[in-house]
Amino acid sequence: MKPFSNRVCLALAMLVVPATTASAQSYQCRAPQVSSVPQIAPDQRPRVVPITGYTLALSWSPAFCRTRQDSRAHRVQCSGDNGRFGLVVHGLWPQGSRTWPQWCGSQNRLTPAQIRANMCMMPSARLIARQWEKHGSCMVKKPETYLGVTRILWNSLRIPDYDRISREDGLTAGRIRQAFADANGRAWQASHVGVKLNRDGWLEELRLCYNKRFRPTRCDDRRYGARDETSAKIWRGF
Predict the structure, then answer these.
(1) Interatomic CA distance for residues 44 and 38, integer angstroms
(2) CATH of span 45-224
(3) Which pLDDT tens digit goes with each residue over 121-152?
(4) I want to staple 195 with a disulfide (CB 3.0 to 4.6 A). Which of 75, 132, 173, 191 is the partner?
């Protein structure tokens, strides 16, 4: 498996269409100062397999923060002191044909400046560090390339008004994924959007499926998640 070079950022910038609305990112955000990089220890064995595609996982922050408003570990995202978030990036994950690569190892380390520059996209220093170590190290040689690719994909997206959609009667997982596809043009279809609900039916995450060239592609069953007809709820949080 050969990690792609920094040139992928330029190619991606030409491939994707930037979003035209600020609501594609966070409701509000003030990036905090970052003085150190969290140390991350692998919790599983390294796994190196050929990359067949990618998943951009987007976490629905109001649901994540529902029970974490007073958590010191999640203060940036959940306290409200740094703003309010809607969808945020959980991670960009390389995929394999039957499993996924992980913990591939890298001699290159994140810097506090790199973490701070991405805190409005991924509002947790520990999350950024973990995503680089576990997933990014299997894709590219440098953390700035991994974060740059993630940011280009993120900035290309148009996020539907899920606050309004949450108030609809008879909301389903299919409505959630179709709303995303409708907001993002002809390149996106509902089958390209995975929807993860918790056991009580609340939206936890969208999982956007890409092929090796970062084109939207059909999600496999593992990433597709809840079936279209499944009843769903979206926690607004405010």
Answers:
(1) 18
(2) 3.90.730.10
(3) 999 999 999 999 999 999 999 999 999 999 99
(4) 173
